[in-house]
Amino acid sequence: MKYALLLSVLALVACSGNTTPQAESQPTPPPVEASEEAKMITVTGTIVFKNLEGGFIGFDANNGKKYMPRGLAKEHRKPGLVLEITGEVLDVLTFQQYGEVLKVKDVKVIDDSKVGQQSNHY
Q1: What are phi and psi of 41, to 5 degrees?
Q2: Does 43 map to a domain?
Q3: Which candidate among 22, 48, 95, 114 keeps its CA 20 to 30 Å from the CA of 9?
Q4: b/e map 52-70, b = 16+ CB within 10 Å
Q5: Which first-to-last residue range defines the signal peptide (predicted)?
């Protein structure tokens, strides 16, 4: 009985607040969208192949970061190939969890002399 009375009082107190919607008292500013240029990055690094769950292509940037290139053309999926990739980092998770997903927009081949000379270290 005491609990029922307490719950009733709590429900009345919760419902007796300010009935004016908060949006009217403090307008919410419109969301700020980043420009397309702000999302784009350009990184140089090496294509790697990792033999995990059937294998996947990764991109080890010269700055020490690792990326999962999305949309990389077949001719650029050669382990050991050094590329400069311009793209957009996406906020998604992958099964491999190798690095950030990089949606490829532009590719420039820097060096193809080491294609096929890469070891498979994870």
Answers
A1: -130, 155
A2: yes
A3: 22
A4: eeeebbbbbbeeeebbbbe
A5: 1-25
CATH number, domain at 67?
2.40.50.500
Distance CA 40, CA 17 (A): 46
At CA 33, angle to CA 95 and CA 42, rounded to 5? 55
Give the whole-angstrom CA distance, residue 73 versus residue 82: 14
Quote the domain boundaries for residue 42: 36-111
- The pTM of the full predicted model, rounded to 2 decimals, is 0.64
What are the pLDDT digits (tens) for 5-18? 555 665 665 655 55
Q: Among residues 37, 40, 51, 16, which one has the least CA distance to residue 89?
A: 40
Over pLDDT 90: what percentage of the chain?
47
